[in-house]
Amino acid sequence: MVNFDRFLASFINEMKKYQPVTCYNLPGCIKKALEDQELEYKDGEIVKTQRRISAEAKENGYGESEDEKIRTALIHFFSNSENTSFEYWEGIPKKEVLTWLEQQKSK
Predict the structure, then answer these.
(1) How does 9-29 read in b/e, with b if 16+ C-beta sit within 10 Å?
(2) For each of the chain's 107 residues, which pLDDT tens digit applies?
(3) CA 44 to CA 59: how far, in whole Å?
(4) Residue 47: in which H helix or E strand, if any?
(5) Domains in the chain: boundaries
């Protein structure tokens, strides 16, 4: 899962930025090294980011369907508070719209 050579090289490069400083930003360097491999530390584990999962799925011929792209775009629209200062859409609470869209993923 983790390419240790790439992780270490990225970590070293990030640490070089802080060499003149006596206090190293170790957590920041580790986070950057993981990001370089599209990984993240979450809930006590190193896991793939959603971006990496999507890219691997696309490479393996499992790209998003048009319906899934539309569902994802709608979720993004209704979740973005800049776009949606309203609480209802056509009389339906925004929260219910989002819940319904989320449930459609499993279908």
Answers:
(1) ebbeebbeeeeeeeeeeeeeb
(2) 677 777 777 877 777 776 665 556 777 777 888 888 888 877 777 788 888 877 777 777 666 677 777 888 888 888 876 655 678 878 888 888 888 888 887 55
(3) 28
(4) strand 45-48
(5) 4-56, 64-106
- The contacts of residue 80 (CB under 8 Å, 6+ apart) are none
Q: Record the tokens describing residue 74, joined without a space.
A: 């709608």
Name beta bridge partners: 39: 48
Amino acid identity of 39?
L
Per-residue CA distances from 34 to 20, 24, 89 (Å): 23, 17, 40
Query: Kind and range of the H or E element at 95?
Result: helix 94-103
Count of residues in the chain:
107
Q: Which amino acid is at 93?
A: P
The first and second tokens of residue 52, run together, are 């990496």
Q: What distance in Å separates the CA atoms of residue 82 and residue 42, rounded to the nearest whole number?
A: 28
